[in-house]
Design a protein that fits this description.
Number of helices: 3
Largest sheet: 3 strands, parallel
Order of helices and strands: EHHEHE
Radius of gyration: 12 Å
Number of strands: 3
Helix content: 25-40%
Oligomer: single chain
């Protein structure tokens, strides 16, 4: 299982959250989150097939770029992508 770190500690807007995921994860596995929506994010996670990954989300609790609703949506997305293990840091 390949492990990646997504640093959300300086993400203060939706665009900076997108950039953090592209820099810390998607870019490392030759992908890119283009759609700028949570549905596009979900689809992008499935473009790897069933290869397993571990994501450590640094700054999860302090990230001002994620609203409560966005955090709930991300939790929902990650619960549906069983090939990705998430560690909230």
């Amino acid at each position: 299982m390949k492990a990646f770190t997504v640093d959300l500690s300086n993400a203060h807007s939706f665009d900076s959250v997108v950039a953090a995921f592209n820099d810390g994860f998607f870019g490392s596995v030759s992908a890119h989150w283009y759609g700028r929506s949570w549905d596009a994010f979900h689809d992008c996670l499935w473009c790897f097939g069933e290869q397993e990954y571990q994501l450590t989300l640094v700054g999860w609790t302090t990230c001002s770029g994620l609203s409560t609703k966005a955090r709930q949506r991300l939790d929902e997305i990650f619960s549906q992508t069983v090939h990705i293990k998430v560690i909230y840091d």
